[in-house]
Amino acid sequence: MPRFGLSGSDRSAPLPEAGAAPDVPASLPRTRGAAAARAIRRDGSSRLARFRQEGSLKLLWPHGDGEDPLEAVLLNTAGGLTGGDRLDLHLSAGAGSWLRVSTQAAERIYRTVSGPAEMTVDLQVESGGRLDWLPQETILYDGGAIHRRLRLDLGSGARALLAEPVILGRRAMGERVRRAWFRDRWEVIREGHLVFADRLRIGEEDWPAAGAAAMLGDAGAWASLLLVAPEAEARLDPLRRLLPGRAGASLLREGLLFARLLAEDGFALRRSLIPALELLGNRALPKVWRL
């Protein structure tokens, strides 16, 4: 994947390398959060078999147990992330079950003085199961730094729908991102074999070139989508008809469809993203999503 970058003159101090141990003053409290959940198939429906949460991460269950899909809403009570913060999420869908997870609101990445915030998302789907990871947008503010890792491990006949939308500041408030660090790493393992990997990196040195047409241009938001399912090929042409001009979708291999969208701002992105996700998932999005 190409490296993205944007322009700016505020270069008062270099951002630390993502993944490096942050130099956090002892007086600064850091956010720590972890959550884990496992769905199983029992009595003809998807049910919660295991659930744990600690620190700032909370999982809410708006519809209770025993429905398909089993719905969860993730909440970070810290209200955002900055340098040295860390979140860890582990989600599992057992054989024949369906777990769908969204977030209560957009996640905010604030200016850092102490290295990147870090977030890991580990997803496991057993044979015949399905897992949808549908978080709302990550808003990257000027001076923010985030290092994210997502790993999806699929058994035989397992399905998954993933989305990660990102917004660069709040354009309606006159905000522009001129200096930030963003690093996103996706890996998909199917029956023990690596079938998909994506690396998206925006370093501080990349921002001067981001206005080029071959990179972000005037886009202030983007989203990455991945569908792993037998019907992926059948969804490709309908998805392409829905996508805006600055977007692309490809069937990378049998049963694996990937798309990336660029948009002027968060509203324009969501206007394209919601119908695309509903097409790929063959279902309305959770109620926390609104246009």
From TrEMBL:
Q: Which PANTHER family match?
A: UREASE ACCESSORY PROTEIN D
**Keywords (A to Z) from UniProt:** Chaperone, Cytoplasm, Nickel insertion
Q: Gene for this protein?
A: ureD
Q: What is this protein called?
A: Urease accessory protein UreD
Coiled-coil spans in chain: none
Reading the lineage from the top rank, the first entry is: Bacteria
Stated family? Belongs to the UreD family.
Q: InterPro entries from the xrefs?
A: UreD
